[in-house]
Each structure stands twice: as structure tokens, then as C-alpha cells.
Amino acid sequence: MKIPSRLTFVAAALLVMSSGCSSDKKPDETTQAQMPASEGSRPAEEMNEDLQHITLPEGFRIDYYARNVSDARSMAISPSGIVFVGTRSNDKVYALVDKNKDGKADEVVEVASGLETPNGVAIKDGALYVAEISRILRYPNIEQTFRDKPKYEVVTDQYPTDQHHGWKYIAFGPDGKLYVPVGAPCNICKPEKPIYASITTINANGSGLEVYAEGVRNSVGFDWHPDTKELWFTDNGRDMMGDNLPPDELNRASQKGQHFGYPYCHAGTISDPEFGKERNCLDFVKPAKTLSPHGASLGMKFYTGSMFPEQYRHQIFIAEHGSWNRSEKIGYRLMLASLDGSGNVTDYKPFAEGWLQNGTDDWGRPVDVLVMPDGALLVSDDKNSCVYRISYTK
Questions:
Q1: How far apart are CA 343 and CA 352, in angstroms?
Q2: Among 22, 111, 220, 361, which one is least packed by beta carbons within 10 Å?
Q3: Quick count: other Cβ atoms within 10 Å of Cβ 183?
Q4: Distance of CA 116 to the CA centre of its chain
Q5: pTM of the prediction?
Q6: In whole angstroms, what separates CA 385 from the centre of its chain?
Q7: Which DSSP symbol is given to 316?
């Protein structure tokens, strides 16, 4: 089915918020405009000047869900709808609370501080799991204790202490295990220990650590197909091979034990200049789709909600954080990977963009995506220190 045509959509944000969203630039003055209201939609609101830069397909809008979420990175939602947000350059974990369920967080609560790069967050059996560099922490009964600086239990402290690619995205899979990536401790190298450049699994109590997928340079986002339950994940390609080599990857792990190429082969066909002579690219699982070169493809989710039109259901949204080492910047946008009935990626194109202006000025950097119970899509932004909400109005 055809995706609706794109247009520049003026996005709205509430004028009265509990706190302001940080930005590298001073926000422009807001201007008053009326927006058509429909059944179940929010009333007309003041339009935020920054969000006017974002383009979306027809019928979609973007608003601020929460502001002043410093260094907002990975997200997870509790059964009652509290959104927990990890950070990378910060030491904190936050809770975003939408008390009246109007699609805007009323509170940003600091749940924990003093942690080492608590990028990853996940929820299971009423507990919040947080991934540091080398440890997985567990905060029991988090919905009852998140306001009270809760104490944590150390689930495991057996992960490597390397800072390079040491930040972690975590999530519980359909098998009940916690999936924990371990990035390569370098740009390109042949790690001595098999735990590096992998995605591992552990039991919820920290036992049973196993390597699930090998040859994964640095994955900071994954999800499971709603029907097949197969693991799909993004992987960031190595640096210092030029602007366009290699591309990032969207991978599909159909079973445990597969190898995805690093450090010998990149993007399925590109032999590494240093290590490629040791293995043939035919030895490894090829990507389901090659992505933007150095676009820093991070968080990804299958769309499982019912708010968006049917053609978006079970398609993949991917946050491109944006390049840091290209002569011309790329990324800084939310992408859509379209799948056919057999699970093949048939298209990959921008869904929301505008955080990069004039090819040089990046005022925001999308990190993670989260499908909300009402079908809206949250997008975290660690540069603009906030979380956006993308919704659809018929």
C-alpha cells in the first residue's frame, strides 16, 4: 500500500509546560495558530518554532511529550504507562509521568543518579532494569518507589568495563531473557574475548550468560518481529573507510549462534582492509537492509499500535542519531523500513526529518523510539534533551 505523500507539517507543543526543552540555540518566540480539532484530538495549541522544521507524512503531527529530560536516550514503559528514560553522558535515570493521559508528561522525575552511563532501561515483573557499562541493576516495585530514590540490586557485574562502545541498550525478549549487547572495544579490531562484538542474553536474575549473536560491532537498538518473534537489530558500521563505507546495518537473527561479519566483513559484501583476508563474506549472515553510511542508526521498533494507518503496522521505525565523521552530515532523522509479507525490507526512507538544517546545523538527534499504548510514537533526543510524541489524526 502506498504511504501518504509528505508535506511540511507544522507541529504543535504546549506553551505552558512544567519546564523548558534545552537546545543549542535560543528558542524562537512562539506564534499563535489555530489547528483543526477532531474527535479524540487535543485542542489547538501554541506552535513551537523548533518543531516547525520537522516534516512528516500527511496527517501526522509532532509535539513535545516531555522537556528538560537531559541527555534522553533509551526508553521503556511500565504497565501503568510511566516512561523510564536512561542517559549516556549523564548519570541519571528519569521517569516521565502523564497523569491525565493527555499525551503530554506532567512530571519529569529523577529516579536515580550517580550511575555509570545508565543508557539502557527495561521493565519486567514490576521491576526496572538499568544497564551500566559493566553491570545490570534492578529496582524492584518501581511504580511504587520511583519517587523515593529507590535502592537497586546488582543483577550482574560480569560485563566488560571498556568505555568504548560500552553503553548498552537492553530489552526482554519473548523468551523472558534479557538481551544485552557488548560492543567492540575499538573502531576495528579482533577482540580476544568472544563476549565482545556480540548480543548476549541473561536470565532475569543475572544467571546463564550466553552469546546469542556474534560479529555485531555496536548495536544500540533491537526489537522482535510481532509475528515471527525473530530478533531484528541495528548495527553501526566501522569508521575511517570514507564517507560512504561501510553503511550501517539492519539485521535479522533467525536463530541463536549466527555471525554477522565483524571485524572481517561489513554490510554483507565489504571485506575489511585489515581483517577481511582471514574470512570470506559468504561465511556470514547478510543484513536485511543496509542503512545510511555513518548515520548512527540506533533505536528501532516494529509499529504495533492502531493509531497510525494500517500500512504502518508491523513496519520498522529507526532513529538515525546522525553522523559525526562525514564531510557532509547525514542522519538526524526518523526512518521507516517497509517490510513485505515475507519479512523482506522493500523500502527505506525518511519518515520525520528536519533536525538537520542546511546540511550543517543539527539542533536535535533522535535516539530511541517507543510505541505507546494509544498507538502514538515517542522519540527521544539526547541533544535537544526531550522526548517527542508523533501522532496521527484522521
A1: 23
A2: 361
A3: 25
A4: 19
A5: 0.89
A6: 14
A7: E
